[in-house]
Amino acid sequence: MGKKATYREQRLLTRKERGTFNDACERAATYANRHGGVLEVAEHFLDRSGWSHATFGIVSVDCVGRVLRYLDTGDTYSLTLGQEDDGDVFTTTWGDWYKQAEREHCEAEGVISCGCCGEFTPLEFRFCESCGRPVSTGE
Ligand SMILES: [Zn+2]
Fold it and tell me: For the segment 77-108, what is each residue's pLDDT rounded down to a tens digit?
């Protein structure tokens, strides 16, 4: 019983066995950093690995002066690949990156991000300078 898998089926099986999109992202980051260290190389690697359907091009997000270029997966907290300036390509989610960048900015500047409007207010203030609401320390 069972006919021999066609070449195409075999290829699909092989791809499946090569793991998840997250695994592919890790490999793509490693590959890209060995070959020029740019996000575009990682994108091509993913496309060639059969994941072209999983990303929708390179987009960027900025947080208080820092810019992350990343592969859009259509989801804030799904793993993808990103790059800041000329740094290494790394795996991240843009949501986590944003939170981290914001946290680092707050620590460096002694400010807190308003839970209502997102503006930054000095830590010692109890009310947001921008919207006047009480500044909450919870995330
Ligand atoms: Zn506010």
Answer: 999 999 999 899 999 999 999 999 999 999 99
Residue 18: phi and psi, rounded to 5, are: -80, 10
- Tell me, in angstroms, the distance from the centre of ligand 1 to residue 104's CA: 19
Ligand 1 centroid, distance to 105 Cα (angstroms): 17
Between CA 82 and CA 71 the distance in angstroms is 7
Residue labelled with tokens 């460096």: 108
CA of 138 to the centre of ligand 1 (A): 14
CA triple 110-112-113, angle to 5 deg: 145
Q: pTM for the complete prediction?
A: 0.78
Distance 69 CA to ligand 1 centre (A): 27
> What ranges do the domains of the chain cover?
7-92, 102-139
With the CA atoms of 28, 32, 34 and 37 taken in that order, what torsion angle do they form, in degrees rounded to the nearest 10? -150
Determine the distance separating the centroid of ligand 1 and the alpha carbon of 134, expressed in angstroms: 8
Of 67, 68, 79, 22, the residue nearest 49 (C-alpha): 22
